[in-house]
């Protein structure tokens, strides 16, 4: 089951957000949330909120446990760019681009890891017999030659 959360029109460049999304892709959701809390960037704070929202969606809407969730996809796409003008000398103007981003996080449920059955103590594993295809020739001593 996949669960997603989106933060649209975030007032930050998608380039800055992609740095953080690359770090958390493929990690378990709770571990990624801990990592994001330690990163001192605005993008990390926005991704943390989006990730927390995705985890809450999974728990409340789909009855999934947060411990079983992994981040399948964390994407930062470009949103619309607002164009502004900055006045310059001699009546000229310069362009200012105020970029925005769309942050999308998709969580999926991890496949349960099957543990190997424990062997009883004292029981030894049987060894396979070595193939007798190439047998080494027996060494002949000088006493047996004469």
| Bulk shape | elongated
The level of helicity is 25-40%
Strand order of the largest sheet: 1-5-2
Distance between the termini: 82 Å
SS content category:
alpha+beta
Kindly state the number of beta strands.
Answer: 5
* Strand composition percent: 25-35%
Q: List the uncertain runs.
A: none
- Which sequence of SSEs, written as H and E, runs from N to C? EHHHEEEEH
Annotation field: number of helices? 4
Gyration radius, to the nearest Å? 31 Å
**Largest sheet: number of strands, sense, barrel closure:** 3 strands, antiparallel
In round numbers, the mean pLDDT is 87
Attribute tags:
4 helices; alpha+beta; 32% helix; three-stranded antiparallel β-sheet; 146 residues
Task: Give a verbal description of the structure.
There is one protein chain. The protein has 146 residues and is an alpha+beta fold. Helix content is 32%, strand content 27%. It has helices spanning 14-24, 29-38, 42-62, 142-145, and strands at 2-10, 69-78, 82-87, 93-98, 101-109. It has a three-stranded antiparallel beta sheet. Strand 3 and strand 4 form a beta hairpin. Helix 2 (29-38) packs antiparallel against helix 3 (42-62). The longest helix has 21 residues, at 42-62. The termini are far apart.
State the gist of this model.
This protein is of the alpha+beta class and 146 residues long. It has helices at 14-24, 29-38, 42-62, 142-145, and strands spanning 2-10, 69-78, 82-87, 93-98, 101-109. The mean pLDDT is 87.
